[in-house]
Design brief:
Length: 203
């Protein structure tokens, strides 16, 4: 087995809570008393453009929320969106230890809109852990499209056998695995440590 030299990490669901997934969206709908069907119809039409960086957060909110007068401000809604992000401290500590070992190229590989992605990078000090951010909003592709994994391999100049991708969703792991990357579906930090150990990924 080739020695693993590059670790690619999902962010939402692995290192942090999700940023704007269905759970977070539902919390916002309840908080601001919004119509679920209407919002979800609009969201589904825009989410691909939003996460690929084709539209800004303000444009997304204009079309999903503020297409009519509301009793709350755009800033209040954005502040609430940002407030939903929480760290998974134990996983971040594990990732930080691997980064500090100097043995691995550390990169994110995630689907996220530009503004939420930047907020989370800054707020949770992800630049201290990762030297590369392969985010859908920067590269114009989303998981589980094969292209985003191919890009990760190409720009890091690693062979697939040298790469390990960590995600909490099975669908996102399939294309990476088909390319020959090692994959780990994270369910807990203890299981993640065990799976790393089996692959020889140690600080």
């Amino acid at each position: 087995m080739a020695k693993i030299t590059a670790l690619f990490w999902d962010v939402g669901g692995v290192l942090l809570t999700n940023a704007w997934d269905h759970v977070e969206r539902n919390r916002a709908l309840i908080q601001f008393e919004l119509d679920e069907v209407d919002f979800n119809d609009r969201h589904q039409m825009l989410v691909s453009s939003f996460e690929r960086g084709k539209i800004t957060l303000d444009e997304y909110l204009e079309r999903t929320i503020f297409y009519r007068t509301r009793t709350f401000s755009r800033d209040a809604f954005k502040d609430y969106m940002f407030s939903l992000s929480r760290p998974k401290t134990d996983v971040l500590d594990l990732a930080r230890g691997l980064a500090q070992s100097g043995k691995f190229l550390m990169s994110t590989l995630n689907n996220e809109s530009r503004e939420l992605n930047l907020y989370r990078i800054q707020t949770f000090h992800l630049r201290e852990i990762f030297s590369l951010f392969i985010s859908s909003c920067y590269v114009g592709m989303r998981k589980p499209e094969a292209g985003i994994y191919r890009l990760a391999i190409d720009i890091t100049q690693r062979t697939p056998e040298e790469c390990c991708f960590i995600d909490d969703r099975e669908l996102n792991l399939e294309s990476a695995s088909q390319m020959g990357m090692h994959v780990i579906q994270m369910r807990s930090v203890e299981q993640l440590r065990d799976d790393f150990g089996k692959l020889g990924v140690l600080p």
